[in-house]
Write a structure and sequence with these properties.
Blueprint lengths: L34 H5 L50 H12 L2 H21 L10 H8 L6 E8 L7 E7 L6 E7 L14 E5 L8 E3 L5 E6 L6 E6 L4 E5 L8 E2 L10 E6 L7 E6 L3 E6 L8 E4 L14 E5 L7 E6 L3 E6 L9 E6 L5 E6 L6 E6 L2 E6 L8 E2 L7 E6 L6 E6 L3 E6 L9 E4 L5 E6 L5 E6 L3 E7 L1 H4 L5 H50 L2 H34 L1
Length: 578
């Protein structure tokens, strides 16, 4: 049965009817022959060419049978059962199948069909030893162009008073839009006429914002909901949490109360992986981490004070400036502080004191960026002062890899979502650095001068090719990196895993050696203190006359030694002069 599709269309839908009529022929153009051109014509000599009318074919003993195909169609429904069998009754159908399987004709049919199926399976499993597999991948490995990145869009702050792009967030569905938060983080530098608005930009229309978000206070951070692309949550400069639904308007849907919010600017907000998709948590320099449900922002659902003494004292709490949460580890999260310490926490601990699991002494100043490697969550990246460091959760005293100190301060960093060995950093001098630790660790693989002012924010798209950088003067620049830095390389995961394991093992060995040296130094110092204490005790036991006699004896010994030294020096001078 041929599968046939018929399409019908009324005559009236074909348009106006074409009318043709006969008319006599008329001469449009007449080109007269030119004898001069005829003299220049060179006739070609006769030539013969052999032609074969049939296609060249060969026959050999290894040729397989020709496969002939037919186009057939079938509509499968539950049927073929006898009238006395109800297909809905499982017991009846099982009983009927067992009866059919014992039939002799059924067994003969299966035996005949087995040889045909075996032949077809043999054809499917045949391997062409001369076929080249993965030709495209081999070509990519052979052709290695120098790394590059091109600027494709620039979104500028439309306000008269320019503000710093403090945070960027990509639209979760396809990355067609980019949300940008603007604020002035310099102490008491914000002007009275500075606009608090944040914007959502469309990549296809960079001239004006697609939507304007209107918070009461300037936004320091902003984040799209990965489960609902129409909702966003942001943290304000005054400590409030703001919730938006872009389907309705740029006005906020709900705002947390000032009494229950943070006391300092909210530097980071992250959505949690929950069933409802409405839970988020935030961190601020007031030393608190708060959990929220955007359906009711009147008060936080949970609260954690970053007091390392585990007493919940807000006066001794460390100010949080960065936050990290990995969906594959739903109970763990990490907080980067102003004091250079990264705090590892467990949300599901029984008491607030047990929620702080451990600390890492990472940097001399604030930890501006903190992110786990998406392929190896046990390793995380931190950025502070003038360098970036890669850490392992198992080693708390030192990082396993680090960059050398840069001439300009680093402000933000993030891992590539596609390549496990690549991460990006931005600096105060306007440079975007792309590091590939498998290629080299001392210098970045590519450095791009994005702008002349300082860069403060960085966010990568999930495809790994688009990079968004925010500057101090309100410009959000979109760059596209080359395929070499955005496509997963051959054996990259295994090589990166080996490198991280090797570096972690090396740091453990060095850490054990350092502990051994400290123990030896401690035992040596204790021994010296004991010897000094013994001498002091012996001196206290001696009488004053014995002490004076021992001091005179030591004095005359030193005098005799000095005389011998001077005599030997005079003899050397006489030998040299003679």
């Amino acid at each position: 049965m041929e599968i046939v599709h018929e399409y019908s269309k009324p005559r009236r839908d074909f348009g106006r009817q074409c009318l043709f009529s006969d008319r006599p022929a008329e001469l449009v153009a007449d080109v007269a022959p030119n004898p001069d051109l005829a003299l220049q014509f060179m006739p070609r000599g006769s030539s013969g060419q052999a032609l074969q009318c049939s296609q060249d074919m060969s026959e050999h003993q290894i040729n397989t049978e020709r496969f002939e195909s037919e186009s057939r169609g079938i509509n499968h429904v539950e049927g073929g059962w006898p009238k006395d069998i109800n297909p809905q009754e499982v017991e009846q159908t099982i009983r009927f199948r067992k009866k059919v399987e014992k039939d002799e004709s059924y067994l003969n049919s299966i035996a005949q069909l087995g040889s045909v199926i075996d032949h077809c399976v043999g054809q499917n499993t045949a391997v062409d030893i001369y076929q080249k597999y993965f030709e495209d991948e081999d070509l990519l490995d052979e052709i290695q162009d120098p790394p590059f990145a091109n600027t494709i869009y620039v979104f500028r702050d439309p306000n008269r008073v320019k503000r710093t792009v403090s945070c960027l967030s990509w639209h979760p569905d396809g990355g067609r839009k980019l949300a940008a938060a603007y604020s002035c983080l310099d102490f008491q530098k914000a002007s009275a006429d500075m606009s608090p608005d944040a914007y959502i930009w469309d990549l296809e229309n960079p001239n004006k914002p697609d939507l304007t978000l209107k918070p009461a206070s300037p936004l320091v951070c902003l984040d799209y909901n990965p489960k609902d692309s129409h909702t966003l949550v942001g943290g304000s400069y005054n400590g409030q949490i703001v919730f938006w639904d872009t389907r309705k308007s740029g006005q906020s849907m709900d705002v947390s109360s000032l009494e229950q919010s943070h006391r300092d600017p909210v530097y980071k907000t992250i959505w949690l992986q929950s069933k409802t998709g409405t839970e988020a948590f935030s961190a601020s320099t007031d030393g608190q981490v708060l959990w929220w449900d955007v359906r009711r922002l009147s008060e936080p659902t949970e609260r954690l004070i970053l007091d390392l003494g585990r007493e919940g004292n807000l006066d001794r709490a460390l100010g949080a400036i960065s936050l990290e949460f990995e969906a594959t580890m739903p109970t763990k999260f990490m907080v980067g502080t102003e004091q250079g310490v990264v705090v590892s926490c467990n949300r599901k601990a029984k008491s607030p004191a047990e929620k702080i699991v451990g600390t890492y002494e990472c940097h001399h100043g604030p930890v501006y960026a903190l992110q786990r490697n998406p392929f190896f969550p046990k390793n995380f990246l931190t950025v502070g002062d003038w360098r970036a460091r890669i850490w392992s959760e198992d080693i708390k005293d030192s990082s396993i890899m680090w960059t050398k100190y840069q001439m300009s301060c680093l402000t933000d960093a993030c891992w590539s979502p596609i390549r496990p060995s690549v991460f990006f950093t931005v600096k105060m001098d306007g440079l975007l650095d792309i590091w590939d630790v498998l290629f080299k660790q001392s210098d970045p693989t590519l450095s791009v001068k994005v702008c002349d002012e300082a860069l403060f924010s960085l966010r990568l798209h999930e495809n790994g090719r688009l990079v968004a950088c925010g500057s101090q003067q309100g410009a959000a620049t979109i760059l596209e990196v080359c395929p070499g830095l955005s496509n997963l390389q051959k054996n990259e995961k295994s090589l990166m895993a080996e490198m991280l394991e090797r570096e972690a093992k090396r740091e453990k060995i060095l850490e054990a050696r350092q502990k051994e040296l400290r123990l030896k130094e401690r035992s040596r110092s204790e021994q010296s203190r004991e010897d000094e204490a013994g001498r002091d005790a012996a001196e206290r036991e001696e009488s004053p006359e014995q002490l004076i006699a021992r001091a005179e004896q030591e004095f005359f010994i030193m005098v005799e030694a000095e005389k011998r030294r001077r005599k030997e020096k005079e003899e050397e001078k006489k030998q040299i002069s003679s």
